[in-house]
Amino acid sequence: MGDQVTSIGSYAFAYCRSLKTLTLSANLKDFGGFNPINFCESLEAVYLRALVPPFRGDLKMNNSPRLKFYVPSRSMSLYTSSTIWSQYRDNMVSYDYTDLPEPDFYISSDLSAEGEVTVYQKAADGRGIDLVFMGDAYSDREVQSGLYLSDMKACAEAFFAVEPYKSFRNLFNIYFVTTVSATEGYAHGGQSLGTNLVGTQVIGDDLKCFEMASKILQDDERMQDVLVIICCNQPKDGPRPSYGTAYMFDPDTWSTSRFASGPSLAYFTKVDDSFESTGNTLRHECGHGFGKLLDEYVFPELGRIPSDEQSRIEQKAAYGWYANVDFTSDPTKVKWSAFLSDERYRYDELGVFEGGATYPYGVWVPSKTSIMLFNVGRFNAPSRYAIWKRIHKLAYGSSWNGSYEDFVAYDVINRNPAPASAQSSGYFASPKPQRPAPPVVTGRTWRQR
């Protein structure tokens, strides 16, 4: 295969029953799709000439029992530690290729820091709420230079830059986990956590992220509520938006005594060293992941929310999820009715606004200014209330029973003291072409792929 080839599609060599060897491109980035070598019973050798482990889809070897992968000697550690190739380490042979082109980009050689844990903060009160930060697409030299740790600290500080996290930071445990990728950024592949950008959706190896977190917590009960926050490194080559995607998982067991339970992953892309734009995206995705909130923008073409989608939302709402959306426009019955009748919130621009959870009709949200609307500003009062409740339930247990008035007493620091500008009565439409990716509600527990 010539070195101009960068990807192999699904079933590319499937059912080539007499095929014995494959010599692949040195620039191969995608060995994949679905079963490219399925039912190649005679296949004995695949010469993987790529210095950076290519992305692998669903690769079945059950019909090729003698198969060996001949891997460049200088990259053996990259392949054997790769999240998608390591399962075949017993089939790998280190091979000294003499015809490989010298890469014009940096490739990591020292993976020893992979999995190292830094305890950034331990909770000073309560049981400790677990946040695990990790990055992807950082090379060994970016780890050694201190950039990786610096970015993890910036992520943690960005998370706690807004209320109510800021006031209750002492209730959190904060951990950093080091990962080492083969290359820097996303131009050449080899990400340790398998992250990538598909449109505006950030994907990754969810199970590996959770498994790394579980090695820190070593407690199945704590894994039911962990938030893992993943910063995807992008070297700067000009202005670009920051994208993110939250993946919300079910707890092993649903219980009304565990408010808004369930672990989550929050992926986002780094676009600035100051973390100004990056921090906004982080906070929005963690609004999903920690607060269990839904988006407050819409995609106009979606129309009215389907009844089955409404039912799915209502089912999880019974356990404390989705406090910032409802399906009634009645201000006396909506979830945040207490705020609407409370004179102390008369300047907070709260109401019952149609359009939310990406649907313009049949869903109502509390405000038209919120982190959950367009990744800027702060959480609106009902969202702060939901986050405040979850913080305290996790810190002090299900028996904690703080009241609305307790929240209002704390929230005096966040209320608007004077009228703001007039609100629009219509829904807020997400702009195109930079259409954001809504959260992925997986419907499965963290152990399930």
What can you see in these coordinates?
The chain is built from 11 helices and 18 strands. The protein has 449 residues and is α/β, with parallel strands linked by helices. It folds into 3 domains: 7-95, Rossmann fold; 117-294 and 436-441, Collagenase (Catalytic Domain), CATH 3.40.390.10; 300-413, no CATH class. A 7-stranded mixed sheet has the order 8-10-9-13-15-14-18, sandwiched between helices. The chain has a 4-stranded parallel sheet with strand order 2-4-6-7. β11 and β12 (201-203) form a beta hairpin. The two termini are 33 Å apart.
Roughly what fraction of the amino acids lie in strands?
15-25%
What is the number of beta strands?
Answer: 18
What structural class results from the helix and strand content? alpha/beta
CATH homologous superfamily descriptor of the largest domain? Collagenase (Catalytic Domain)
Termini distance?
33 Å
Helix-strand sequence: EEEEEEHEEEHHEEEHHEEEHHHEEHHHE
Q: How many discrete domains?
A: 3
**Low-pLDDT residue spans:** none
CATH architecture level-2 label of the largest domain: 3-Layer(aba) Sandwich
Average pLDDT, to the nearest integer?
92
Helix content: 10-25%
Assign the CATH topology of the largest domain: Collagenase (Catalytic Domain)
Task: Characterize the overall form.
Answer: elongated
Strand order of the largest sheet: 8-10-9-13-15-14-18
Main sheet properties: 7 strands, mixed
